[in-house]
Design a protein that fits this description.
Order of helices and strands: EHHHHHEHEHEHEEH
Largest sheet: 6 strands, parallel
Number of strands: 6
Bound molecules: magnesium ion
CATH superfamily of the largest domain: HAD superfamily/HAD-like
Shape: elongated
Structural class: alpha/beta
Oligomer: single chain
Strand content: 5-15%
CATH class of the largest domain: Alpha Beta
Low-confidence stretches: 243-252
């Protein structure tokens, strides 16, 4: 199997999974609204954010942080974004393995993409990659706040393939931590899917189907061996029929 591109999920994949304490919206509200309004604003922010998760899970439609602020009556201005970004900064740091893996893929001539289900802005994600020194290694990224769909919708994956200039899903690998969004979604469009299984996905965020990964890795650096093995596989494997429809059966 030739590999033209490897496309990564972001949270829980390029960053190690972090479990939040559930108080983030309250702390954000406490910095943005008058003291007597904090509880109410925090509840509204949390409800609007929950609605984004529900919409992504059930309808595979995307949303934005601006929507969350507006639904809660909080002005979505630079101050609001800055407070939000500071609150979540601790959870955004790159897996220390990631630069090695991204550089190794580059050395193999493989293009690198990112496809993240996110309400955060592109500017914020790019700022994080620049801070962590890997922005220059990424050939194309799709942040679902900018498109109508979220993973596992096939169009989200197609947008990511277009962003990296790799139009053949049979020559793309997707790496993610979510069995539904990432693995089921990538397999359904005909990509190979690699699961990094360490994330503690809340039950309410899980979808209706756990996809069957083509490979499971214990840490990001294991990906290079998986990709090398696929690239070295006999060319006869390339001739296996591949179904690329909406309900792809398991690969033989
Ligand atoms: Mg993830």
């Amino acid at each position: 199997m030739a590999v033209d591109a490897v496309i990564f999920d972001w949270g829980g994949t390029l960053t190690p999974w972090k479990t939040a304490d559930g108080r983030a919206w309250w702390r954000i509200a406490a910095r943005l609204v008058a003291a007597e309004l904090v509880d109410e604003a925090a509840a509204a922010l949390a409800a609007a954010d929950d609605e984004l998760w529900r919409r992504s899970r059930d309808d595979h439609r995307s949303g934005t942080l601006a929507e969350v602020f507006e639904a809660a009556g909080v002005t979505a201005d630079d101050r609001a974004y800055a407070v939000h970004d500071e609150e979540w900064e601790w959870a955004t740091f790159l897996d220390p393995d990631a630069p090695t893996v991204l550089t190794g893929l580059r050395e193999r001539g493989i293009r690198i993409g990112v496809l993240s289900n996110t309400s955060w802005t592109r500017a914020r994600h790019e700022q994080i990659f620049i801070r962590d020194g890997v922005h220059h290694l990424i050939d194309g990224a799709v942040y679902t706040c900018e498109i109508p769909w979220t993973k596992p919708h096939p169009d989200a994956f197609r947008a990511a393939m277009a962003a990296v200039g790799a139009p053949d899903p049979g020559r793309c690998v997707f790496v993610g931590d979510r069995p539904f969004d990432d693995i089921f979604g990538a397999r359904r469009v005909g990509m190979r899917a690699v699961l990094l299984p360490h994330s503690v996905i809340p039950q309410v965020q899980r979808g209706h189907t756990d996809g069957e990964p083509d490979a499971v890795i214990g840490r990001l650096t294991d990906l290079l061996g998986v990709v090398d093995a696929w690239r070295a596989a006999s060319s006869s494997a390339e001739d296996l029929p591949r179904y690329r429809g909406e309900d792809a059966p398991r690969r033989p």
